[in-house]
Amino acid sequence: MASEISDKKDIWSANTYGTTVAPFVAALTSKVVEWLDPQPQDEILDVGCGEGVLTARLAPHVKRIVGVDGSPNMIESFNKTFPDIDARVVDCRYLDKDTSLCNGSFSKVFSNAALHWILRDETTRANAIKGCYDALKPGGLFVNESGALGNVAEVHAAIIGSLVHRGIPVDVARNASPWWFPSLEAMKTLVEGQGFRWIKGEVELRQTVLTGHEGGGIEGWVRLFGADFLALLPSNDQREAAVKEVVEVLEGVGRRQHDGAFTVNYIRLRFVAQKD
Asked: Which residues contact 246 (CB under 8 A, 6 or more apart)?
């Protein structure tokens, strides 16, 4: 989900993200919601809430939930679709600076499919995690699912390769990645460094079936999630050629033989940590 406010174009569209390309993000959440264990007395901060589909699913089961996201487009859609839920545009990289949220009033902080975007910038990782810590009451829980080391590795590598084939230096292509996919130990170190007590964590391979919609599938995935990579190329023709190359390369990697569906190897990192 979207997570940052910057001078860059807001690439996020609720329809493209939630319907055409990646409806599975909000749907494939049974394990992390089980770990969240929403209760009627809970007050939850949802960090990187996107267009609010999962936030709205949780809302009837808790006392209060607030969604924050760095994409104005996503929050605009959230507010139109779910006007009774508090949703705000917040640059979650600097969550600790928002004193209206980081004031010890929440019993749980929740994040799904967002931290790998939010934590991309090494210089603000501590700010984001400290914000989650400061938002919680003593004894409160931080529950997360995001991308782990090796997440979508085949797509990631194919995109970088397509850029290198078009003259982009490999280090420049690598550095254009909008994601941080840490090992479990790296995430544990980061979270504990901001005062949390690590309760449990796991990494799981989840072979995820992409949509078959027009504008979706692997081509739509690359156009949306790989936008920062593609922006390195100087012309639309080159960007189109790069997308085509990635799709053709991955055809022999992700296409299931028995039904023709296209899968990507998502590797999910989940954890629960507590503010003592």
From this structure: 155, 158, 159, 162, 218, 222, 226
Q: pLDDT of 194-242, one tens digit each?
A: 999 999 999 999 999 999 988 999 999 999 999 999 999 999 999 999 9
Quick check: 191 and 260 in contact, CB under 8 A? no
Q: How far apart are CA 72 and CA 90, in angstroms?
A: 9
Q: Cβ(200)–Cβ(142) under 8 Å? A: no
Helix (H, G, I), strand (E, B) or coil at 222: helix
Query: Cα–Cα distance between 201 and 212 in angstroms, integer?
Result: 33
Q: Is 162 exposed, middle or buried (0-12, 13-18, 19+ CB in 10 A)?
A: buried
The pTM for the full model equals: 0.94
Strand partners, 111: 144
Distances (CA, A) of 61 to 33, 35, 78, 120, 195: 12, 14, 18, 32, 28
CA torsion 136→137→140→143, rounded to 10°? -10
Nearest partner of 148 among 184, 110, 173, judged by Cα? 184
User: Residue 152, class by beta-carbon neighbours within 10 Å (0-12 exposed, 13-18 middle, 19+ buried)?
Assistant: buried
**Structure token digits, residue 25:** 């993000």
Q: Which two tokens stand for residue 51?
A: 């267009």
Amino acid at 69: D
